[in-house]
Design goal:
By secondary structure, the protein is mainly β. About 10% of the residues lie in helices and about 45% in strands. A five-stranded antiparallel β-sheet has the order 3-4-5-8-7, covered by helices on one side. A five-stranded antiparallel β-sheet has the order 11-12-13-18-17, with no helix packed on it. A five-stranded antiparallel β-sheet has the order 16-15-14-19-20, with no helix packed on it. The two termini are about 45 Å apart.
Amino acid sequence: QESPERIVHMKKKRIITFALAAALILALGVTTYAIGVHTGFFTSVFGTGLKGREAFDVEIKDDKGNTVTTEHYPAIERVDVDEELAENLTGNYIAAVGQSVELDGFTFTIQEALLDDNGIGALTVHVSNPDGHGLKQSGHYENGERPRFGWTVYPQGDEMHMMDMRDYILPDSFSGTDADFVLYITPFTPLPSDAGLTLKIMAYKDGVNPPDWPTAELTIPAQEKVPSRELTGDGITAKISPVGLTLCYDIPNAQEVIDDIMELIFSDGSIYTIKGDDLVNFAVASRSPDQRTLYYCFNRLCDTEAVTELRLQSHWYAAGEQGNHTIDTVLR
């Protein structure tokens, strides 16, 4: 609920000061955002609009009901957003896209988008269908069911380099005809600075070959991207932005690198565990074709200027060797 309008009486000197400040902002081409302008985006993407979970196990059974294996799912934490800090970190980089397209009775609207300079980020998309969208709030479809549509994201004009993506339905938005999604994305190679994105939507049709499914596209124009800063150590470069982490391993003979524990340490002593023994606090991750660069999209905003170090434990495999090599280091 919006606060009621306030009438403020200021002295003439203060009015002149604010007028000069406003003129300076216009002259410099600086965009400022008041607290609350991006509340919905921050809460949905990096706050508690999506819920965390406790760690849990799932038993996998064979057709006779015998347990074959047990899969473990680590806990996920979601935290409240400091809106003033969030605006300072990312407010100037959030694009209000507002593009819509209709396909197979649905209307898809990209609302807002945010990307960092490595191509890590998130989109919010509204989906509506007056006849009912047929979605399940959990996002899971059992017994061979599937939703009526799917989507992919790729750099504009470059469908061959499709990006990794994970989508979530925001629980508070869900109704029989409408739903809001958060689409988290990471690249497999860095996104060019002058590249926009394309969201390709496909309408699933039973009995129709996938190449013949109806499709539609929405474009996210090239936009200014949130800058990252670098931390280094032991031949590893970490590029940290408010929305994600890119880890580059300079290990020429590594066939695959796997990150086990990643912790960002802040100047006030607080810790953001991106990945821990039983904790996963990133939304989606991908790796480069050579397996030595890894991309992580955060599930919260990170004050990069307050980061003092990245504690990292990883292991990697080399072609033709048995066993693995371990890394236990601190990047500063």
